[in-house]
Design goal:
By secondary structure, the chain is of the alpha/beta class. It has 19 helices and 23 strands. The protein binds glutamine.
Length: 556
């Protein structure tokens, strides 16, 4: 068979399903808020009644971020179907209020894994396997998977990580170029997010870096249709005209994204700028008035809260708040519902070890002990929990935070002095132990207990009071669990098992009776909190902290 026809028999060319596609790229610098821009556009379209979804393309070679350290990557966001994904998916869910799946995040690692598997399976029939067309076809196929899925979006927003000019993202950008050729200009919009630096000395906003990043895009065959320019200062008509002139984008499609007080204000600002209207116009879709009433109310309360409450989040990644991104956001959501500013202080658990809980924590109205991995700082977490339990300060333990609460209770209340998690120590009292089906797991990525699992809540508990529903589903990411061998002993000593998995009888939630609010959960409620529907456990924890504060103020 001649070389050029090799491999074409079994591998069909990717087909592009009927939908509208917005490709979001970033220029000048990273951390420009492409994720927030994509999520905001998603919200603006959804609130006009359109079905929208978002795909994040990550150019790194890890198959997923699950194996990366939080210092490298920030939080690993887990979806209902158990994918470990980029934290931008959290923003997508929080803004467009739909559940993402493993289809909503693709990495170069996944693309290459598939191409190499096909090569090993002989699917290329002797052909040379190349970035173009094999890698790019695989990317195009993955984009098309979304409209083919049950999400059935009318509009797919595709955000690519990194900055134009990076070597890593080139195959994605090339795939987008080919996608445009196949799908046609009525179905594709390219949106480029850039930065306009402000030079104080000349009191000027500079457009040159934007011009250059668009040159880079055009070099590889992509002409943006829309520019969203991040800027500290308002921009004049002249600045918009200048950007338009040099980038070949009509001035009316150059939008300013001013720095916002809260990320939740960004969609409102972009709506005023007319972004969604412009996208719809390019697609020949009808513009409608978006329903942003509730969103606006919540944003107003974030900006002008009536009260305040101070919460300590104790963990080991405190220098890096991205590691606990969804926790921070969940507090913002609850605060907005309760019309209260939730001041979150990130307290280093190792410091609690060296300085003591009283000194580090006594100024707070509530304590959350964060999820995490590894022994470092674990004794500080246990000490912090003891302090909250004894002083009746509202306590919320998430995943590792719940595990540490069980260890603390076992040691200091149930008298199991050597109690620990086997993640940290070999102990004769392993109250937290490796899950049975984790014992033979050697591979790292995607092998924890992941995704949404059912949990049954016990009547008469704080947990059920929060949810108001006996059967819940929450997302997990862990290898260790409450050891049921110690259940009777701990329950006899006063621990309340308030939530269990109905199939495996795993303990998923615990709480204490003689305490205003002391709740731990093995799952990650923060992943399901959204601005318009804050998570009930966070809401009730914040409420309990507000009551604690009011009580303390009354005693003063
Ligand atoms: N390290 C613990 C485990 O694997 C907790 C994980 C977590 O907090 N996400 O079980």
């Amino acid at each position: 068979m001649p070389k050029e026809t090799a491999g074409k028999r079994r591998l069909r060319k990717p087909r592009i399903p009927k939908a509208k596609y917005v490709f979001v790229t970033g220029g000048v610098v990273s951390s420009l808020g492409k994720g927030i821009t994509s999520a905001s556009l998603g919200l603006l379209l959804k609130q006009r009644g359109y079905r929208v979804t978002i795909l994040k393309c990550d150019p790194y070679l890890n198959v997923d971020p699950g194996t990366m350290s939080p210092y490298q990557h920030g939080e690993v966001y887990v979806t209902d179907d158990g994918a470990e994904t980029d934290l931008d998916l959290g923003h997508y869910e929080r803004f467009i209020d739909i559940s993402m799946s493993k289809l909503n995040n693709v990495t170069s690692g996944q693309i290459y894994e598939r191409v190499l598997q096909k090569e090993r399976d002989g699917d290329y029939l002797g052909g040379t396997v190349q970035v173009i067309p094999h890698v790019t076809d695989e990317i195009i196929e993955r984009i098309g998977d979304l409209p083919r899925s049950t999400q059935k979006p009318e509009v797919v927003i595709i955000e690519v990580g990194g900055t134009v000019g990076d070597i890593e993202s080139l195959p994605f950008l090339e795939a987008f170029r080919q996608f445009f050729l196949k799908a046609g200009p009525r179905n594709v919009v390219f949106l480029h997010v850039t930065l306009l630096p402000f030079i104080a000395a000349s009191n000027e906003v500079k457009t040159k870096p934007t011009q250059h990043s668009v040159y880079r895009l055009r070099e590889i065959g992509l002409q943006p249709n829309i520019i969203v320019a991040r800027t500290e200062k308002p921009i004049t008509k002249e600045v918009r005209e200048k950007i338009g002139l040099f980038t070949n984008v009509p001035t009316k499609d150059v939008f300013a994204a001013r720095d916002a007080e809260t990320i939740y204000e960004v969609p409102l600002m972009l709506e005023k700028e007319g972004l969604a209207k412009s996208v719809l116009q390019k697609f020949g879709m009808k513009d409608k008035a978006p329903d942003l009433k509730q969103w606006k109310e919540r944003v107003d309360r974030i900006k002008k809260p009536s009260g305040v409450v101070n919460i300590a989040v104790c963990g080991k990644y405190v220098s890096l708040q991205d590691a606990y991104k969804s926790i921070g956001e969940a507090f913002i959501h609850s605060g907005s519902l309760l019309d209260t500013k939730v001041n979150v202080s990130w307290v280093d658990s190792e410091k609690v070890e060296s300085e003591g809980a009283e000194k580090m924590l006594s100024q707070y109205d509530g304590l959350l002990v964060a999820p995490g991995f590894g022994i470092r700082g674990s004794e500080g977490k246990i000490e912090a929990i003891r302090w909250a339990r004894e002083n009746k300060v509202p306590f919320f333990g998430i995943c590792l935070g719940m595990q540490m609460a069980v260890v603390e209770f076992a040691r200091n209340v149930a008298g199991l002095k050597r109690a620990n998690s086997t993640e940290f120590a070999r102990t004769s009292q392993p109250v937290i132990d490796l899950m049975v089906d984790q014992r033979n797991v050697r591979q790292k990525g995607g092998t924890m207990r992941l995704g949404a699992w059912a949990c049954h809540l016990k009547p008469g508990t704080r947990s059920l009071e929060a949810y108001g529903n006996e059967l819940i589903r929450e997302r997990h990411r862990h290898r260790y669990e409450f050891n049921n061998k110690y259940r009777d002993k701990l329950v006899k000593a006063g621990l309340v098992v308030s939530g269990t998995n109905p199939d495996a009888d795993l303990v998923e939630m615990i709480e204490l009776k003689d305490h205003p609010w002391f709740v731990g959960c093995q799952f990650h409620p923060e992943l399901k909190s959204r601005l318009t529907t804050p998570h009930p456990l966070f809401v009730n924890f914040v409420k309990a902290s507000m009551a604690f504060r009011a009580n303390r103020d009354a005693k003063k």
